[in-house]
Structures are given as C-alpha cells and as structure tokens.
Amino acid sequence: MSEPHSATARAHPNIAFIKYWGNANDNLRLPANASLSMNLEGLYTQTTVSWFDRPDADSLILNGQPDTGAAFRRVFNFLNLLRERLNITGSARVESFNNFPMGAGIASSASSFAALTLAAVSAAGLQLSERALSALARLGSGSASRSIPAGFVEWFTGQTHEESFAESFAPPGHWDIVDVIAVVSSEHKSVISQEGHHSANTSDLQAARVAGAPERLAICKSAILSRDFEQFAEVVERDSNLMHAVMMTSRPPLFYWLPPTLMVMEQVRRWRADGLKVCYTLDAGPNIHCICAKDDADQVRQALSALSGISEVRVAGAGGAAVLVDVND
Amino acid sequence: MSEPHSATARAHPNIAFIKYWGNANDNLRLPANASLSMNLEGLYTQTTVSWFDRPDADSLILNGQPDTGAAFRRVFNFLNLLRERLNITGSARVESFNNFPMGAGIASSASSFAALTLAAVSAAGLQLSERALSALARLGSGSASRSIPAGFVEWFTGQTHEESFAESFAPPGHWDIVDVIAVVSSEHKSVISQEGHHSANTSDLQAARVAGAPERLAICKSAILSRDFEQFAEVVERDSNLMHAVMMTSRPPLFYWLPPTLMVMEQVRRWRADGLKVCYTLDAGPNIHCICAKDDADQVRQALSALSGISEVRVAGAGGAAVLVDVND
C-alpha cells in the first residue's frame, strides 16, 4: 500500500428538500428518485482512518467508545466494499465522532459515511474526483453521497454505480436560508432508515411519489436558483408530506411523527400564512426542520423554543463540502 | 300532490371501513371507489318533512333553531333535485335534529340526508325501493347512501344515478363489533368534507389509492363475513391511512389530525399488539373511531378515557336501516 497511511476528514450532515426514499437497486443503493439537499454548517462528523498491514485487525472507536456491534458491522461492510473496489489491503482503524448527538436529532449516517469515504480513500494514498467519492459514499448510506459536494446539492439516480453521484448546483453562499431544527425527542428512533427504504415498495403510493419526483425536483431547484421562497416552501412541504404518506401506508406502516411534530407542522403553516418565510421538512424521525430565511431565523427559533414538547432548537446555515483535515504518513 | 303531506324518518350515521374520498362524477356524486360501512346504533338524525301547496315558503328548523344559512341552502338544493326527479310541487317545511352534537364529533351529513330523503319521499306519498332511496340520498351527501340500508353496507360506484346505491351485505347482528369513538375536539372542523372531495384529485396519490380500493374492499368484506378481526384490522387501518395520505398531499394539503389523534392511533396499535381486538379508522376530522370486539369495548373505552386530550368517549354498535317513525296526512 502506498503512503500516507492515515487521514482525517470532516463532513456535514445534509437536509433533503426533495427526499430520497426507496431504492431502484438495493445492492448498489441506486435511489428510486433523484433528490436535492443542503449541507448543514456547524454540524459535522470527523473521522480518522488508518490503514496498516496486519490482517483481521479492523477496529472502530465511535464517539470515544470502542464499538464491535451494529455500527462496527455497518462500517466494515462498507470498508470491505472499498477494499474490493479500490484494491486496498490490510486492516483499518477507524475513529469517528459527531459534534452533535446521535440518534433521532439529526441523521448522522450521511456525514459519517461521507467523512469515512474521504478519510479511507485519502489514507490509502488515492486521489479521486468528487464524483467518484460521492458515488462511493453512496454505498455506505444513500444520503452520504450528498454530503461530499458543497452547499446546495443534487443526487442523480443513475443506472450504474458510477452514474449515481451528487454534485453541487449552488455554493453555500448562494441563498441565505437556514435550517432551524426543532428536536422533539432524543430517543433513538425505532426503525433506522435503511430498513425503511426496503419497505417503500410495500406502499401502494410509492410509485406515484416516485413518478412525480422529477417535476418536484425541477421546481425546487428552480426556486433555489431564483431564491423564490414561496415556490420553494410549497414544494418542500409537499415532498415531505408525500414521503411520510408513503411511510405511513407501508406494510407494516411507519409512523415517525409524534404529537409535537404535528403541532409544529401546523404552527409553521400558520407562521408562513402570517408572513414569515418558513416551511417544514421531516426526515425519518419526529424532529421538524424549519427551513427559513436567515432574517426570520431568530423569530422562528424563539417561537419554537416556546412550544411544549420541543426539547431543543438548533440553527444551521448552508455548509461546505467534505474536507480533509489531516493526512499523515 | 297525493296524501299524506307529512312524514318523520330516522337514520343512523355510519362509519366507513373502506373510505369514500373523491368523486368520479361531481354532478351526480358518483364516487371514485366503492366503500364499506357500518351504521351506528343509538345515534340518529330525526327529520320531519311537510309538503304544502304554497310557493316559495321553504323553511328549515335545525336542532330547534330556524336556519336560513348554509344548511338551508344545502337542504333545499337537495330538495330541489328531489322535486325535479320525483315531480313534487309545493314548498317544504323541514324540521330536523340529531341526538348527538354537530360538527367534529360524528359526521351528521350521512344520517341527515338519509332521514331527509326517506321523510321527503314518504311525505310526498311515494313508496320507493331501498335502492332508489339510497341513490337519492347520495345526491345530498355521498355517505348518506350508506345510511339507508341496515347493518354492514356496501356502496357501489355505478356508472349512472340509478346504479350508484348502497345495500346491506350483513345484518346488524352478524358480528359483535362496536365503534368506540374518542372525541378529540368539539370545534367545528374548518374544511367540510364536500370541499375535501373536490380536492382529492389534486393529490398525486389519489389515483393509486383508488386503484387499490376494490382489493381492499374485497378483503374487508371477506373479513367481516368470516368475522376475522386480524384481517379486518389490518385493512381498515391501511385504508384510513391511505385516505389521510391523499388528504395531506392535496394542494393545499388537508391535515385533519390533531396531536391527540396521533397519540391514540399509536396506542391502538400497541393495544392490538398486546392482544386486544381493536383497530382505528378516521374520517375527515380529528376523532378516532376505535373499532373493537364487543368483549373488549369496556377496556378500550376506559383506556381512551384515561388519555389526555380526549374530551369524550362514545360507544355504538351496528345499527339498523333508516326507518319511518310517523306518517300523517
């Protein structure tokens, strides 16, 4: 193996405006539809990967604790794919932490697999294009493909591994919108979204959701490029509602909303009717991402903090690309 | 006009197990899909219609109060259709009351238009088949067609006015299930369901919901006929979730759920997992209809009463057909 042996990378989580839900190809994790997202500034996963020439000595330290359970298996299932695709030999020591809590708050799989991909590839002495890194990250977690490029990002469906990557269509500074995240519950969600993706096709509604996705994506991208908040808000909420409609009509049904979730969604619609530039979007969890104009963020944050059932409110603007922090030989 | 001039009829509301949502023909109110329901015993609308030979003297007394507003217009728009179809002349005096509160609790339009149809036809001295009465009631409110026959009822889509009627497929005594209704809010709902039906086709998901309805109806009917609660529960909850998925993805979206609605749905799924024979279904409102085995009704009622956010719990078994209470000349 060529030098250097060790690399450290950081990547942001991202919030999808047009959602990824369900795969066209489970093995390659090719998504049923293309998606759009924004990276979240200030929140990140930092991951160090060290490759060394000893067999069967893979190890994972996650947020300071050795892990040999489900997270270990998921990380090394992915690194096995990388070893195979990139001809990397030897064992890996992976050390990773998030600067935000695990679990139901903000999904950490996107930032985790994006940082892991960049660190693992760089530690192996390889330099890959952003497209190639994004496609590889996808194999770990679909949405991780979107945490490789900067700012406002589109992930293409593709027909092959190489074609299914994400790329930036606007830099972080393009539009002053922020994600004000209302955290409903810190409990770890009971169905992780990977299982959820497999259930998408059990809903009678998934095909219709997927069929309409290209049009919604075009509307959303155009709204972002022209900074048209009204058009953006309508399509972002509609796309989120469509994904949750599919989830709750799957067999068995997946209900991610909790009572405060419903209350905040209703409030957000009222605040917008009252003139605030704010809309909601929800991932596979109970927390509400209130996307709003930066000028309205303080007001939205204060209003959310005053609601019962909301344990915490975080604010994040548009973040940059996954970056290398350190490379050592 | 032939004698007698006055008649009084009673009809029960009904709860749909396979839902009616959206029309194939708005003018004739031919539904997009066939539906299944159970009449609700103990709850009724009682309506007296008197025809008399004076022009322009229509009047409505609703729950003891004269009404000249929206209810008056809806009642007499319907009676104008009856006058035309049945060659009735003269003015009508309509007096109607519900033995249950108006508004968000239990929909009163089904029982109201079923009782009104039977009273108006009988007061005009006409005797019509149950099918013809059911089809006429449909013109006032789609679900009213299902409140004409007894017990467990199927409403056929039909291609013409005459073909779109409801009929009983099992008498009230066929299966000991009851509707335990958890009332979340007594506020009048902001979107009446007639407007909602028009919005159904604005959802990308309505066509898929409608396409699957015949299969769900067949499963539900078979489960009722064979008294298979497990099969019944799965399809009833799924059908309700599908209707609300369409509602919340309409443009603009219709959200009928309130925070306690979501909590009760979750509780019902847990109670069933714990062995109770109970499932939920929701109409165009926040209240939860917990359909359960009669033997489990007390336990369900007590558990619902103990939940916060539930203002009232009602219990209703399977009810009979719309009936004439009185006919006078």
Layout of helices and strands:
2 copies of one chain form a homodimer.
Chain A: E1 6-11, E2 14-18, E3 23-25, E4 30-31, E5 35-39, E6 45-52, E7 59-62, E8 65-66, H1 70-86, E9 91-98, H2 109-123, H3 130-140, E10 152-155, E11 166-170, E12 177-183, H4 193-199, H5 206-225, H6 229-248, H7 259-273, E13 278-281, E14 288-293, H8 297-305, E15 312-316, E16 323-328
Parallel strand pairs in A: 7-9
Antiparallel strand pairs in A: 1-6, 1-16, 2-5, 3-4, 5-10, 6-9, 7-8, 10-11, 12-14, 12-15, 13-14
Helix pairs in contact in A: 1-2, 2-3, 5-6
3D structure, described in words:
The structure is a homodimer of 329-residue chains. The first copy, chain A, has helices spanning 70-86, 109-123, 130-140, 193-199, 206-225, 229-248, 259-273, 297-305, and strands at 6-11, 14-18, 23-25, 30-31, 35-39, 45-52, 59-62, 65-66, 91-98, 152-155, 166-170, 177-183, 278-281, 288-293, 312-316, 323-328. Chain A is α+β, with helices and mostly antiparallel strands and 329 residues long. The first copy, chain A, has two domains: 5-173, 2-Layer Sandwich (Ribosomal Protein S5, domain 2), CATH 3.30.230; 176-316, GHMP kinase, C-terminal domain (Alpha-Beta Plaits). In chain A, strands 8-7-9-6-1-16 form a six-stranded mixed sheet. In chain A, strands 2-5-10-11 form a four-stranded antiparallel sheet. A four-stranded antiparallel sheet of chain A has the order 13-14-12-15. In chain A, strand 13 and strand 14 (288-293) form a beta hairpin. In chain A, helix 2 crosses helix 3 and helix 5 (206-225) packs antiparallel against helix 6 (229-248). The longest helix of chain A is centred in the middle third of the chain and has 20 residues, at 206-225. Chain A starts with 5 loop residues before the first strand and ends with a strand. The A-B interface holds A 204-205, 207-209, 211-212, 234, 237-238, 241-242, 244-246, 248-249, 251, 253, 255, 257-263, 265-266 and B 204-205, 207-209, 211-212, 234, 237-238, 241-242, 244-246, 248-249, 251, 253, 255, 257-263, 265-266.
